[in-house]
Design brief:
The protein contains 15 helices and nine strands. Strands 1, 2, 3, 4, 5, 6, 7, 8 and 9 form a nine-stranded mixed beta sheet that branches. Helix 1 links the parallel strand 1 and strand 2. Helix 1 packs antiparallel against helix 3, helix 1 packs parallel to helix 14 and helix 9 crosses helix 13.
Length: 442
Amino acid sequence: MASGERTAPSERPGRVAVVLPGGGARGAYEVGALSVLLPELERRGERPTIFCGTSVGAINAAFLGSVAHLSAAEQIEQGLAHWTAIGKGDVIRPIVGPGLPRTLLRLLGDLLHVPGVRLAGVMDPRPLRRTLNRIVDWEALARNGRDGTYDAVCVVATSLARSGPMAFVQGSARMPESRPGDDLRYVRTELTSQHVRASAAIPLLFAPVRVDEPREVADFYVDGATRLNTPLSPAMNLGADRVVVVGFEPLGRRAGREGPPRVPRISDVVSNIVDGLLVDQINDDLHNLVTLNEMLDRPRSHAVRASRRLRSARGRPAYRRIEYALVSPQRRGELGELASEVFDRRYGGWRGLLHPDFPLLSRLLGGDQTRARGELLSFLLFDDLYFDLLLEAGKRDAQAWLDRHPDFWCSEAGHDFEFDTGRRPRDADGAESEPAGDAVAA
């Protein structure tokens, strides 16, 4: 097949999933990327029918399910309009204001274990409920699920009682079986604002959200990113054969930070934790996917036969090859740098007096000198200029993926993300060549 030749839809049966991780304000980057990818999928005669998200990815996934009956152009028009209209006041109430002394007193009382005094989150996200109801048409989301317009919308939150992830699923897709001892559980329900806000309840910043339905899993929940930031496995377990994944850092081999060691600040520690929650999970999921694809390319190998026997004994379907499209920034820390630039331009110096919340957050996150400040601000900077830059960055990186992959889909990431899959080079006829020298004995 020529590199520019398009594959007919009939030659690619199966379901397409969109997988969206959590990242706070970075959710605008996801919409920017999808504004390029979804029209291209539609042009090819394909459309996503499974939407899986965590935290802000859950918000975008629920939105996509609610507009699944529309054309890609209409979906993108609405998505871009929502994100360009969001400001800080649409997500959280002011931090610096009449309520600040009360918050500090409640924090002190909670630390001192004063009876009846609790502070589950330092920010008040009550405006997010109204914003969610504006972004997501819940009636349309339910109707599209009943009509089969989509197969599944899945949002992941973390149960405080179980200390494990819960996948809330709406739609007609066959539900994966939740077995005793499984870390991730699945439950079918009609999604509401409760489920999505629970998935986006960032620990310490936002209070846990009580989810009442279904009754058998009623509990307080927090951000799904604490246990499962990239809901790639739910997408495949719900029947996806091809996945579109959006990430916020370059996927693949991670380079260490250069420079002499210095005494870390708390923002450096928090930034490292955030990296582990968000970036490492994406890398691990992708590496596993690529490794399985490479293994399945050798159907007569001992590993493939053994995996089939093992999964059959456990009552699970055999592994299958998954194609994917992956969009992420090409340079590490880019979205954090954008956040720092926007902050300095709009809230630095005397300008911060007009909007004191962001300067306060900046000081708490490391002041002016740390790279960690930008990384953490990039999750909390609900600013229209920052959203515009994120949307444009998402569009640029999605187009870069299409330029590298004229057939849209890929199944091995070595040429994009420098993964070592152990695959041997192929000769001109497509056959794998034998390694030279002593490697044969290995």
